[in-house]
Write a structure and sequence with these properties.
- This protein is mainly beta and about 120 residues long.
- Helices cover about 0% and strands about 55% of the residues.
- It has no helices and eleven strands.
- The strands form two sheets. Strands 2, 4, 5, 6, 9, 10 and 11 form a seven-stranded mixed β-sheet that branches.
- A hairpin with a 6-residue loop joins strand 4 and strand 5.
- The protein is globular.
C-alpha cells in the first residue's frame, strides 16, 4: 500500500508560479512510476508529468518548458514546479504512483489539490 499526500495548491494569477509536493509513505526507490495528473471540470484526467524508475520523464505537450518535475529521494517526495501558469492550467492536480508487486502493477492516487489560475 502506498499513501500519497499532496500540498501546495492554491490561487495564482496568470504568469505566476506554484510548487506542488507529493510525499509518499514508502521509499520512492520502490515505486515504478510517480508523477502528476490533472483534471479540469468536465474533462478527463490527463498526465501532466511523470518519471519512471528507468529514468524516463514524460511531460504533457501543454506544459513542456513551463513545468518541471523533480524528486527528493531522502524525503520520498516528488515536486511539480509550475511556472508561467495559464488559466487553462486550472484543475485538480493528483499525485500518482505505480508500484509493482508480484508482477502486478498497482495504481495509487493522492486526494488531489486544487490549482486555480485567475486574475
Amino acid at each position: 500500500q502506498v499513501q500519497l499526500v499532496e500540498s501546495g495548491g492554491g490561487l495564482v494569477q496568470p504568469g505566476g508560479s506554484l510548487r506542488l509536493s507529493c510525499a509518499a509513505s514508502v521509499s520512492i526507490f520502490s515505486i515504478y512510476a510517480m508523477g502528476w495528473y490533472r483534471q479540469a471540470p468536465g474533462k478527463q484526467r490527463e498526465l501532466v508529468a511523470e518519471f519512471t524508475s528507468g529514468g524516463i520523464t514524460n511531460y504533457a505537450h501543454a506544459v513542456k518548458g513551463r513545468f518541471t518535475i523533480s524528486r527528493d529521494n531522502a524525503k520520498n517526495t516528488v515536486y511539480l514546479q509550475m511556472n508561467s501558469l495559464k488559466p487553462e492550467d486550472t484543475a485538480v492536480y493528483y499525485c500518482h504512483a505505480v508500484k509493482i508487486r508480484l508482477a502486478v502493477a498497482n495504481d495509487y492516487w493522492g486526494q488531489g489539490t486544487q490549482v486555480t489560475v485567475s486574475s
